[in-house]
Amino acid sequence: MTGVAAGAYLRRYSQPPAPTTHLVCFPHAGGSAAAYRGWTALLPPSVRLTAIQYSGRQDRMHEVMPASMDELADEVALALSRYADPLLLFGHSFGATVAFEVARRLQRWGPGPVEHLVVSGRPGPRAQPRTAKHLWTDDEIWDDMLRLGGVDRELAGVPTLRELVLPALRRDYLIIETYGPAPDATVCCPITAFLGADDPEVDRGQAEAWARSTTGAFRLRVFEGAHFYLSARPARVVAELMSLTRPTPTPGRD
């Protein structure tokens, strides 16, 4: 633990007086909480929206970044443990694994408040491929991010943006590439996996591997698009998330 204030991780974009759902969003590697700010207008007025702001970016640029997934998940789980209302966790790419580890901790600390975990654009923990992007050169890492669509190409040539993003992106890669789940790592809440049909980083089998990480129900939802499919059709993604807060028929894969 780095001793960072628990509240430093939380960005509250919507705070209704009597929320029926608390949606907590975890950004991708190199990403920030601001990626989810625009979702506020797409959500029902009864939904509280909180996004996680990792250290080392934007208003937390000069803070020390965690050295491991365990350290990061411990700190975020501590920040969220103050909430008694049920949580709907959504994590994209790197954020999917962070959300999973946070859900495990909240579950372990008591009758966990995590009602549903949605993991997007990431292989299940036991299907995570071995990579070493954190050892790549700056040019290689930046080109890979552009390939995946994580940076707007109109902004990609701005030197100051690259200088600001690369340190956090490299550290996030280090955290995810040195992560290994415990052999019995599972959650008891349902897991739904979101996948872009043309995602070059995750195939259907790898997405379905999340089924082994829950003792509850599992669903797979496939969207048009590649790795950052959610940026192209946020309304569709938000609508699908909200459907998970209502009773549904018997779980299945489609």
TrEMBL record:
<dbReference type="Pfam" id="PF00975">
    <property type="entry name" value="Thioesterase"/>
</dbReference>
<dbReference type="InterPro" id="IPR001031">
    <property type="entry name" value="Thioesterase"/>
</dbReference>
<feature type="domain" description="Thioesterase">
    <location>
        <begin position="22"/>
        <end position="238"/>
    </location>
</feature>
<dbReference type="InterPro" id="IPR029058">
    <property type="entry name" value="AB_hydrolase_fold"/>
</dbReference>
<protein>
    <submittedName>
        <fullName>Thioesterase II family protein</fullName>
    </submittedName>
</protein>
<comment type="similarity">
    <text>Belongs to the thioesterase family.</text>
</comment>
<dbReference type="InterPro" id="IPR012223">
    <property type="entry name" value="TEII"/>
</dbReference>
